[in-house]
């Protein structure tokens, strides 16, 4: 996955600040161009059956909203350009998710960056409506940034997840290519998901798994790595087997322990059903670091392009 063009979507809320920081840091590291997109939902709003006086007041309100939006956008654009990032500003009206996907596809963006939630969702673990819709429809890899993302992003280590499916194999190759651009190491992680026991504490449960089983998983990961990407690329990557009763919680803990910059995960795993995969959705909800979601269509194209 080579990133030359990034589309950064913003709703100008306070939750957008971590998005700007992550996008600027990644654009600097990759030497990528940035399109900064703001979709204005207010401009298209019309008051039903408004009297001439009320309509005039509403036009004044829209003008003030537009002035404030422009001031924030100019400030954000200046920050990107101060970092010597080639940046273009685009404003659009309409439904945000539709406009984000349209522009991502029309401009051949290599990566979309947006927040986990926007102005309507101030707190909680839920994923914003716009973000969900983008993940459903967008054919471009999407980096979802939570409010808890580091304020000084570094890209020394990435996490690539696997459940030994073809989509995860394709995702690993794309993550390794991105890691090469960022000069980052990669942890290739498989989580051994255990059933929730009723007679043991969760922290004791992992100790009951035979060491031979863990060694076998570790051997399988190492062999999988070598077969998928070759020895040269595998040298940048470390196989990691982890044990937990929840895949998403285990990945969250690993990201915190290792200081990973992001978790890369295919949109869907073994079952091609649901919104964008239950594991991906749960990781998005809990991850303290940005999550890079690879759409199914993107991975299928990337896999088809591999030499056979």
Order of helices and strands: EHEHEHEHEEHEHHEHEHEH
Class from secondary-structure proportions: alpha/beta
Supply the CATH class of the largest domain: Alpha Beta
Main sheet attributes: strand count, strand direction, barrel closure? 10 strands, mixed
Question: Number of helix segments?
Answer: 10
Rg measurement, Å: 21 Å
Beta content comes to: 15-25%
Spatially, the strands of the biggest sheet line up as 3-2-1-4-5-10-9-6-7-8
Instruction: Give the overall average pLDDT.
Output: 82
Give the number of domains: 2
CATH topology of the largest domain: Rossmann fold
Shape: elongated
CATH 2nd-level architecture of the largest domain? 3-Layer(aba) Sandwich
In total, how many beta strands? 10
CATH-defined superfamily of the largest domain = HUPs
Helix content: 40-55%
As residue ranges, the low-confidence spans are 269-275
End-to-end Cα distance, whole Å, is: 19 Å
Characterize the structure shown:
The protein has helices at 17-30, 52-82, 96-106, 129-137, 166-182, 202-205, 211-234, 247-258, 278-286, 296-304; strands spanning 5-10, 33-40, 87-93, 111-115, 142-145, 157-161, 185-193, 237-244, 262-266, 291-294. The protein has ten helices and ten strands. With 308 residues, it is an alpha/beta fold. The longest helix has 31 residues, at 52-82. Strands 3-2-1-4-5-10-9-6-7-8 form a ten-stranded mixed sheet, sandwiched between helices. 39% of the residues are buried. It folds into two domains: 5-145, HUPs (Rossmann fold), CATH 3.40.50; 157-304, Rossmann fold (3-Layer(aba) Sandwich), CATH 3.40.50.620. The model is unreliable at 269-275 (pLDDT under 50). The two termini are 19 Å apart.
């Amino acid at each position: 996955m080579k990133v030359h063009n990034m589309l950064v979507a913003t709703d100008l809320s306070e939750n957008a600040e971590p998005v700007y920081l992550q996008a600027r840091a990644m654009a600097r590291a990759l030497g990528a161009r940035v399109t900064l997109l703001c979709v204005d939902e207010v401009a298209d709003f019309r008051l039903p059956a408004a009297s001439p006086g009320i309509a005039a007041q509403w036009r004044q309100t829209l003008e003030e909203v537009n002035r404030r939006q422009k001031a924030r956008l100019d400030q954000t654009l200046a920050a990107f350009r101060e970092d010597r990032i080639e940046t273009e500003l685009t404003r659009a009206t309409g439904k945000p998710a539709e406009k984000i996907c349209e522009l991502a596809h029309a401009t051949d963006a290599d990566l979309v960056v947006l927040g986990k939630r926007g102005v309507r969702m101030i707190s909680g673990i839920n994923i914003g409506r716009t973000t969900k819709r983008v993940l459903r429809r967008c054919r471009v890899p999407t980096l979802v940034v939570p409010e808890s993302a580091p304020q000084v992003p570094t890209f020394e280590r990435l996490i690539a997840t696997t459940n030994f499916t073809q989509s995860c194999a394709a995702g690993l190759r794309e993550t390794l290519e991105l890691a090469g651009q960022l000069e980052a190491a990669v942890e290739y992680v498989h989580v051994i998901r255990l059933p929730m026991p009723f007679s043991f504490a969760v922290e004791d449960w992992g100790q009951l798994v035979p060491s031979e089983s863990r060694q076998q998983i570790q051997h399988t990961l190492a062999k999988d790595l070598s077969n998928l990407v070759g020895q040269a690329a595998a040298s940048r990557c470390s196989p990691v087997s982890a044990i937990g009763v929840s895949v998403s919680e285990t990945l969250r803990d690993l990201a915190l322990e290792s200081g990973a910059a992001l978790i890369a995960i295919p949109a869907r795993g073994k079952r091609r059903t649901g919104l964008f995969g239950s594991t991906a959705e749960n990781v998005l909800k809990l991850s303290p670091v940005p999550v890079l979601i690879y759409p199914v269509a993107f991975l299928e194209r990337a896999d088809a392009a591999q030499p056979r």
